[in-house]
Amino acid sequence: KDPGRVLVQTYNPDAEPVKRVLAHDFDGFAQQELEWRKALAYPPFARMASIRLEGEHPEQTASVARHLGNLVTKNMPPASVGVRLLGPALAPIAKIRGKTRWQLLLKGPTHVALAPLLARVEAALVDVPSAVKVVIDVDPGAML
């Protein structure tokens, strides 16, 4: 009802979701987004957990990310359970305020399927150097 101004910042202005938003096509946007999310096993069709790392020393932060990635990989359930690990990889915004950022993303059919892996990661945090901050975020609202 009330006129307003919306600023859209994107690396890809020709992307289908951006076009639909600019055209005020909510139904088309929602339908396409849900199709993509289902095909890629993203919420609401799956559960996710993000493990984000941040540290001032790039090599140390990368090393911790690889260590946690190896820990998860070694403890993955059988493929039939449907749990997948993406990463470790540099975060989409790889550096903020001079700190290097990495992330791992766990996807699975239910929270119960992810819980044992997250418990192992949480237990391993006692050995992570204090210079590396690790945040486990179940059902993350953003992954930047």
UniProtKB/TrEMBL annotation:
Output the PANTHER family linked to this UniProt entry: PRIMOSOMAL PROTEIN N
Keywords from the named record: ATP-binding, DNA-binding, Nucleotide-binding
- The answer to keyword Cytoplasm applying to this record is no
Superkingdom assignment? Bacteria
Q: How is this protein named in the record?
A: Primosomal protein N
Query: InterPro entries annotated for this entry?
Result: PriA_C
Q: Where is the Primosomal protein N C-terminal domain?
A: 44-140
Keyword Ubl conjugation tagged: no
Q: Name one GO molecular function term.
A: 3'-5' DNA helicase activity
Which Pfam families does this chain map to? Answer: PriA_C
GO terms in the biological process aspect are: DNA recombination; DNA replication initiation; double-strand break repair
